[in-house]
Amino acid sequence: MDIDRFLSYWGHHTIMVCIWLTLTLSLNLINGFCGLFSLGHQGFWAVGAYAAAVTVVSFPGGGWPALLLSFPAAILAAVLFGILVGVPCLRLKGDYLAIATLGFSEILRNLIQNSERLGQSLGMSFPNVVRLSVSDRRNFYLIYLVIAIATVALTLVVLRNLVHSAHGRAIQAIRDDERVAELLGVNLTRYKVLVFATGAAFAGLAGALFANYNSQVTPDDFSFNAGVLMVVMVVLGGMGSFTGTVVATTLLYFAPVLLAKWLPETRVPVFYDPTQGGVVYRELKELWQVLFSLLLIIVVLVRPQGIMGGREWKWPWKKRPATEGAH
Amino acid sequence: MVSTASPAQILLGARHVSKSFGGLAAVSDFTVDLNENEIVGLIGPNGAGKTTVFNLLTGVYKPDKGSIELLGQNLLPLSPDRVTCAGMARTFQNIRLFKEMTVVENVKVGFQPHIRSGLLTSVIRGPKFHNEEKSIDERARELLKLLGLGDDAERLSRNLPYGKQRKLEIARALATRPRVLLLDEPAAGMNESESAALKDLLLQVREQFKLTLLVIEHHMPFVMGLVSRLLVLDHGCTIAQGTPQEIRCNPAVIEAYLGKDEK
Lengths: 327, 263
Prior knowledge:
The complex is a heterodimer. Chain A is mainly alpha-helical. Chain A has helices at residues 3-33, 41-58, 63-86, 94-113, 129-133, 137-163, 166-176, 178-183, 188-214, 224-237, 242-262, 288-302; strands at residues 124-125, 216-217, 267-273, 278-283.
């Protein structure tokens, strides 16, 4: 197979799935490990993406320095927004928190759509630094593959280490019983803001990667649907399981992609309507939303705790540490 | 007041503490001084305000009036986590363990006030982090062993039998290294021999950790053998206090709260 075509197809999707993994893994810290049900992760993602875009566009001289600077700028902007959201939401729980975080990200999207500086609904397009500085497309994909995989690896290591520490125990104690955690010396304000800020930091990192790779950002990329898809990935994989998040994110990202690739012309009967000449056929790839919903219903009925149910993958040759039980 | 201890020996002092919820005076004019190493009992019928007193002392509720001091430190402006760090820990009437965590993990959360590894150290996993985790693990297991839960360390806490869950709550509270421990019905649901064993255990724990205890308990034989002093609460008011003997001889208390049972 032609290596360039292979890279532009599989390379592209691998980079995209890495961006999604960074988003869902960090969302799992907020929703799964700390029990703060956030529906606003797309907002943190958007802040990171736009911060990176603005940095690349407006940094004098542009080029690689602008690209390198756009990552910390995106993380910083997202963390600030995370704290901005986290502080007023401290007293909220459950549905109320979900609505408030959703509200924040929708407000943000509306602000972006009305900001001329940020290109309103059309978004921002800018030269792709990496594509301009490498000679062929192959190297472009390879460079971004390395960045994307490194991003996910960093996210996984940092979040895993955080969760398996005294601070992680405090975070999970808040999820299980906030009041008791507080009476055992857990500073609720500090940890909730920390969780929002950390989750936002990685969403911002994903935003910077997305913006630079795509060299274009539009408000529609960070819609409510994107946020819901992230939550579904976390819930489907299992709240409080990074392994589950990886499995579910990969599955839900690649399922429609592979449906479109392998069964592009497969037509299936969907309903009977005499006015349309009898049985009506649709292409399978158009039915992804239906299959997606069906999958969700099955998982919620059969396995409400998600695919992994809070457990993590352990290498079979590694002895399970005595201190780690099933969460 | 039976004790005439000087203020220096008073560990926890609550003075004229009152709390109302709407029109209901849950606790009115509650005063108690806990002397070092003392065990004081708090009794009274259901709804007398005993657990509200615990919530006031630990900072869950802020009193409308009165003062609360621990080792001379004013507790009123402190949030519950700061109160715990100041040296007060408690258990709960309706057991509130972290159900999805193992037994040993529950205890480890209790070490929260003494965590020294910062965020960065924890994420980078420096030697300081590993040393601290190892020491927390060892101390948590020691506490479990002390309370007779040594073999249950890896079980999920929700799978423990009821009596052990109560003991786990005590172990978790001890992990915060309290000076004052508040126990909310520690012997509830236990039979005579279990509660007698718990009594011995509490006395041993008090010696080992130099603790001062305030205990809510309905189980009279348990209370009588444990505490040096009793406070009787009814409708938020302290209606009697004194040694168990005095309370036992107090006709009003006997009739209203203990019944006519002479043991």
